[in-house]
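Have a close read of the entry that follows and walk me through the local backbone shapes. See right below:
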Amino acid sequence: MTRRAVITGIGVTAPGGIGKKPFWDLLSSGATATRTITQFDASGHRCRVAAECDFDPLALGLTRQQIRRTDRVSQLAMVSAAEALEDSGLRIDGLSAERTGVAIGSAVGGTTTMEQEYAVLSNSGADWLVDPAFAGPHLYDYFLPSSIAAEVALSTGALGPATVVSTGCTSGIDSVGYAAELIRDGDTDIMITGATDAPLSPITLTCFDVIKATSARNDDPATACRPFDLTRTGLILGEGSAVLVLEEYEHAVRRGARIYAEVAGYGTRCNAFHMTGLKPDGREMSEAINAAMAEARVNPEDIDYINAHGSGTKQNDLHETAAVKRSLGRHAYGTSMSGIKAAVGHSLGAIGSIEIAACALAMRHGVMPPTANLHEPDPACDLDYVPLTAREKQLDAVLTVGSGFGGFQSAMVLADAERDV
């Protein structure tokens, strides 16, 4: 019997609202959650805008001990995992715990606390030799990205395989793809999977300032990110997490679970070309799309909607527009495609899972979220990017794509679990 992986629970902690409902309300309204940075003094930076979460871990159910020993990146994931489990109706205990795994993606791990700890240890960089006596007792946990998966496993009671996937900005697609493969291979019946990142810190902003990838439109934070728009000037950083409960299909059916969608296909490639550059022909992303569609057993005309990477940089917009044309051919022009990063920012490793959650919710509601801030389309980007206003449509198969520094290109197809194949 062929084993299949389906989504039965969704948890989202994102800019604009905590929880999957506020997240969906923001996306479907066409509003944005980008604003002037409040988490630290960004006045000396080229870009001073980001998409921040209004996040109170104590109010959201974490204990003071959990908060003390974890970076914000783990806290976001634990809150999302709790919502996803509640949404699924699952109880993880007994034998089910042994058959439940964790796969969490993250690009930069505990960056925020690591930077804060370094400032304390080095007297804000003034001292070359740091004094370890000032180190916090949990510094090693902040340093290890694997602690994120360990904390999610601990908070949920999962006793199966646990791992962190770190492939830059495709981490959130790749972690879910890995989790689905564990279920299909019979290693687990349930996976708590997704991604999280809390990169908003001076060092992260400096890294993006150096390569001028972020928008410098500081006077208008709400419209600073403009994917596929002729007036775009770069991406806007964000933070957040999305966690999904993936379940083996028959396991979900036996307990009468609500199924959002099947993780039907996944593909990933690397362009082995340039750390930040992309070839304009989109070949590598196209190959990832082709692999995902082949595994899902869907044809170009079966794709009802595409969730774009849509970072708001010119080279990315041209690259993925070309990739979609290569993979879908003439059907690319009749397939609607939109990007949500204008609304919730680019949360690096987390965004791929946040976008998967958006796709699953779009299928549930029969609504394609719009591309916010798209007022003046770039003539070189000549597909349908659903500008400004959401559209209703039954969605039986959707494609989501991601592109990351280092040349990573990933794609995933979600499909109606009851479809005929």
Remarks:
- The first strand starts at residue 5 and ends at 14.
- The mean pLDDT is 95.
